[in-house]
Amino acid sequence: MLRLVILVAAAAEVRVALASPMSAASQATSASACPDQTGDYAAVDNAQLPDPWTFANGKPVASNDDWACRVQEMSRIMQQFELGALPPAPDSVTATMAGGSMSLAIKVGSNTKTVSVGITKGSGGASGGSGGGSPAIITVGGSSIPIPGTVGRISFGNDACAAQANPASHGTGWFFDLHGKTHPAGALTAWAWCVGRIVDGLEQLGADKTGIDPKRLGVTGCSRNGKGAFLVGALEPRIALTLPQESGSGGAASWRVSDAEKAKGKSIQTAHQIVRENAWFSHNFDPYVNKTNELPEDHHFLAALVAPRGLFVMENDIDWLGPVSTTVAMKAGRMIYAALGVRANMGFALVGGHSHCAFPSSSQADLTSYINHFLLGTGKTSDAEISPANVTMADWISKWSPTPKLSAA
Ligand code: MCU
């Protein structure tokens, strides 16, 4: 009996040691301090973007503590309606470093898996004295942005974590080997969990062994992998800078605005199409793809989940990606950052005239400013909000409650 108690206590300790820290906003308030978090939210009937300033139960967000609870609620709502549940940290992760490769032995219940991740150190030391090592960007299926030599790279092979071949590839990959083939997570949620294990390994080994400062991590990816980068930033609070590129529908775009654009005749990716194309979302989403007005969430919530951390969203003017849709959703996202007093922590640049995932040189200065500020600790961000799309924000947010006065600190 005593032995059992000791074992249980030891297991609890490991879990505590591995538990992901909450986002800055939610650090102040534990889940139990938040009211009405039933975990089972009702559908709505709302043609506009759901109001970030009102809880699902109709109460207004009036304080920083309220906001911390609302952020948790928005994450749960998104998991319930489209993403599938993000599992808690695993029972154990054991990291080892050999050459430029970090190996992670991960245990969830009786399932174990060992995966390896390539790491290249950058030449830039971390300023701010957070333990040495260079900052690094985790690349989701590769990178299509220029990463400066000062910043390292960590190569996340997302397809091996959760496949994105077609809708039937749900359940394939090491995430599902650990959690079971029928786990409800879509691939985007699975990738966020798998990246969390990479961060566990970096924290465990420390900068001495990996050459990387785990407090200065960015994440990027383009197109389908840009959706992934956005979701990694939204669900993994240890990411300091999120850099989604041309994520389009399922990333920076709003389901509702994309449906409205489709109704106007645009060739644009919608919720209806996306679940037929691939395994990015949970089957939880299937009942809503023809009635997105019933979702008590939309993708401006992704910005709310990343806030107040660094976020620079790059988009293109390709119809399929929904330039009007990404502009509306990300302008709404910047309003959320502004209400937290940190508008410049989120930038948005929709620049056309180049092929899909080709980085436009006119975005270089903006990108550099976000990397410098959040990963290298120098200078200010450019506070970019660039888009040629003409949008009428009132059509989408006029029913929001008055903006509360909040602060991110
Ligand atoms: C923009 O990302 C996707 C898009 O959602 C898909 O519909 C299309 O098939 O592929 C794009 C992509 O990943 O391109 C590389």
TrEMBL record:
Residues 1-19 form the signal peptide. It is an enzyme of class 3 (hydrolase). Its EC number is 3.1.1.117. The keyword Signal applies. The keyword Hydrolase applies. Keywords: Hydrolase, Lignin degradation, Serine esterase, Signal. It comes from the Eukaryota. It catalyses: a 4-O-methyl-alpha-D-glucuronosyl ester derivative + H2O = 4-O-methyl-alpha-D-glucuronate derivative + an alcohol + H(+). InterPro entries: AB_hydrolase_fold, GCE-like_dom. Residues 106-341 form the 4-O-methyl-glucuronoyl methylesterase-like domain. Belongs to the carbohydrate esterase 15 (CE15) family. This is (4-O-methyl)-D-glucuronate--lignin esterase.
